[in-house]
Amino acid sequence: MANHLQLGFQDASSPIMEELIEFHDHALMVALAICSLVLYLLTLMLAEKLSSNTVDAQEIELIWTILPAIVLILLALPSLQILYMMDEITEPDLTLKAIGHQWYWSYEYTDFKDLSFDSYMIPTADLTPGQFRLLEVDHRVVIPMESPIRVIVTANDVLHSWAIPSLGVKTDAIPGRLNQTSILTPRPGIYYGQCSEICGANHSYMPIVVESTPLSMFETWSSLLSS
């Protein structure tokens, strides 16, 4: 959950998000090193008089050709690793289907015979103390913790996007197409997200709430909802 005036990322609540934050810090340090080097060279050029040896030096030309290539490799390798990790779908314990509508979400637990529901935003006038405006829904998505979950995302009308920042998930919901992603929560908690694709007048009123619980609590919840 983001705080007011927060400048950084939300606390990572999944292994993928932890990797994304580490890569962000890595890329930021590389950018800081590049900026520091360029600033030093500019200061040196302004303070020192260039000689013919400096202008025509082939060694410097070789360095400023090879050095950017090395920097790109340092950025590309961890980026590709995370990209493949995000695309990899392990053997899931549960499959969840999220369907975007104007302007609410529908969810289907395909491993159960009859477990589906619509999730609407709770109006501001109906909120209880402690609930968050524009983020609370009447039916939360409940998943078991420490279990790989496959999420299939699609839409029924226009483009939507199923996004939860703290879990490192953002998958486009496209009519007539099934996109999939995976989530794994190492601890219980409540994770908030919103539709991240402009989908019409009420685009900002499509929140997503995922509640991660122990397996025993999830089994109790699913049995009550499907009965």
Provide structural commentary:
Helix 1 packs antiparallel against helix 3. With 227 residues, the protein is an alpha+beta fold. The protein starts with 14 loop residues before the first helix and ends with a helix. The chain has helices at 15-47, 52-55, 58-87, 215-226; strands at 94-101, 104-109, 116-119, 141-144, 149-155, 160-164, 169-173, 179-183, 189-195, 207-213. The chain has four helices and ten strands. A five-stranded mixed β-sheet has the order 3-2-1-5-8, with no helix packed on it. The protein folds into two domains: 15-47 and 56-87, no CATH class; 94-225, Immunoglobulin-like, CATH 2.60.40.
CATH superfamily grouping of the largest domain: Cupredoxins -  blue copper proteins
CATH topology of the largest domain: Immunoglobulin-like
- The helical percent reads 25-40%
Strand content: 25-35%
In the CATH hierarchy, what is the architecture of the largest domain at level 2?
Sandwich
Q: Tell me, what's the shape?
A: elongated
State the distance separating the first and last CA atoms: 32 Å
Beta-strand segment tally = 10
The Cα radius of gyration reads: 24 Å
CATH class of the largest domain equals Mainly Beta
Low-confidence segments: none
Quaternary structure classification: single chain
Protein name: Cytochrome c oxidase subunit 2
GO molecular function: copper ion binding; cytochrome-c oxidase activity; oxidoreductase activity
Transmembrane segments: 27-47, 62-84
GO biological process, one term: ATP synthesis coupled electron transport
